[in-house]
Amino acid sequence: FQRLNVSEKPKDELEQMGETFNKMIEILESNYEKQRRFISDASHELRTPLTVIESYSKLLKRWGKHDPNRLEEAINAIHDESIRMKNLTKQLLLLATNEQEKATTLSEKINITAITTETAKKLSVAFDRDVSVTTHTEYFVLGNDLQLKQVLFILIENGLKYSKAPIQINIEKDKDYIKLLFIDKGIGIPAEDLPHIFNRFFRVDKTRSRQTGGSGLGLSIAKSIIDAHNGKIEVASTVNEGTTFTLFLKECKDIREEIK
Ligand code: ADP
């Protein structure tokens, strides 16, 4: 983009227009840079499993037929990396869809207590681990059912992935907001990494996450959904003690009031 040359003063209409154009260029440039970064990060993340698949298929072609151990190792690696790629592309698609849907998000009165309990139960079965939900009553928020379930899924699954103990979820009222706490007694997040965990593709420990199949996209998806709901997501963590994610969502008492 080419900038217009604008002198300091006096400001006539043409110069004001020039300044406006320059501001527009700055915005376009920063959006362009963000998109460029995103594409380059996404390509990099997709290339890694592809490289593993490529090298293991080469190995299979050369040795596989004669060596049962290599055959087994190669098939397992190709299988794991294909699943990683599948999950990654699924999450990238979700991220793109969330961006598009931002404008139409807040349309339903959601029983947040019910969907939290439902999601907790599903994941508790999947991981064969206790996920308990504590609440005094049913609370409602205004939002998008599928997107909120996705956020709950991400936070509960992370709690289960990064700890070995049961997970606790508390739902309570905090002024005009419904506050949800996701408490795990897991490995925790180092203080210096906390500011980055909502960034796309960020993982505290690349090798460890690779074992758990993480893409580093979950929390950035969760944050983009919560931002679109005009809510807040916070984190507090101590290494080797555990992590608590806190969600704030505006309470919805009467849907007719809210969508006026
Ligand atoms: P991933 O798919 O890698 O889990 P996320 O965006 O969901 O991606 O999380 C980013 C990183 O934040 C994870 O790789 C992990 O290092 C860290 N993290 C997220 N949740 C927790 C948690 N409950 N306990 C410890 N670390 C966590």
How many DSSP helices?
Answer: 7
* Distinct small-molecule ligands in the complex: adenosine-5'-diphosphate
What Rg, in angstroms, do the CA atoms define? Answer: 23 Å
- Main sheet summary: 5 strands, mixed
Strand content: 15-25%
Helix-and-strand structural type: alpha+beta
| SSE ordering | HHEHEEHEEHHEEH
Helix content: 40-55%
- Tertiary shape: flat
Whole-Å distance between the termini?
42 Å
Average pLDDT, all residues: 85
Order of strands side by side in the largest beta sheet?
2-4-5-7-6
Low-confidence stretches: none
Number of strands: 7
Task: Draw up the topology in text.
Elements: H1 13-64, H2 68-101, E1 108-111, H3 112-127, E2 131-135, E3 140-143, H4 145-161, E4 167-174, E5 177-184, H5 206-212, H6 218-228, E6 232-238, E7 242-250, H7 255-258
Parallel strand pairs: 2-4
Antiparallel strand pairs: 1-3, 4-5, 5-7, 6-7
Residues 154, 158-159, 162, 184, 186-189, 197, 202-204, 209, 214-220, 243 line the site of adenosine-5'-diphosphate.
Domain HAMP: 1-33
Main location: membrane
GO molecular function, one term: phosphorelay sensor kinase activity
Structure description:
With 260 residues, the protein is an alpha+beta fold. Helix content is 54%, strand content 17%. It has seven helices and seven strands. The strands form two sheets. The protein has a five-stranded mixed beta sheet, covered by helices on one side. α1 (13-64) runs antiparallel to α2 (68-101) and α2 runs parallel beside α6. The chain binds adenosine-5'-diphosphate. Adenosine-5'-diphosphate binds at residues 154, 158-159, 162, 184, 186-189, 197, 202-204, 209, 214-220, 243.
